[in-house]
From TrEMBL:
Domain S1-like RNA binding residues, every copy: 37-76
Taxonomic lineage of the native organism: Eukaryota, Metazoa, Chordata, Craniata, Vertebrata
Annotated Gene Ontology cellular component terms: cytoplasm
Originating species: Rousettus aegyptiacus (Egyptian fruit bat)
Protein localization: Cytoplasm
Protein name, as recorded: Cancer/testis antigen 55
Keywords in alphabetical order: Cytoplasm
Amino acid sequence: MLRFISRALAFCRRVDSSEAKKEHHLKLLEGDTKLKTVQGVVTKFYSDYGFIDHLIYFRSDVVTGGVIPKVGQKVIAIVEEDKISHELKAIKVDTFCDNYHDDGPSDSCTKVSLGCITSLMEGADCISHTAYFSVDVVCKDFEPYQGDRVEVAFSIEPNMQRRKAISVKPLRHKHVHEACITSLHGRSGVIDNSIFFTLDSLKLTDGYIPQISDIVNVVAVESIQSCYIWRAISMTLVKTCQ
């Protein structure tokens, strides 16, 4: 009898814990507008943690249902950004199958995915070798370049088993004030030894040609460029080296 009561109490504690976690996630979503729901693929997994799309860190204890996802499995995650390190971390991860369908209406809905620009074509670009989008849906003042990390909103039509990109924007961006151009190589260069730029996709003040040691203000987006993770998309001269 005592054993039965003990098991019943343990079960109740698990239920309460599950409900508490659910309530915690709901409160986070209501109180922090920076949280977002993204759809991605598990690209790495170790003993108790892993990564989604090579970028989003998650621990095994945030996976719902206690079923640890395998590498290559699709997931839906609630993601937050660390205010100091700016790293992305999943606070909840749901796994699902390719044949998964919501029980709700079959009208089109919107999903958000993270990806990397893998190729550029006239009128359209490719994300992570799997999806294409028209340049018409790219956000204002952003010209995609190979290697850029982007956030893409897709319109999904369940009955037709297809999706369409409806908006594309940089995953992250930052403003850098009074930075120094540290190197130039043909049409490419580096700012503060950390931000890559190329004249092929850089907005400049009319008539300005970047020179080593120039002091500039820069807007940069997260991008995979050789050993750099930021790419300048606009540059304004503050003080010339001459």
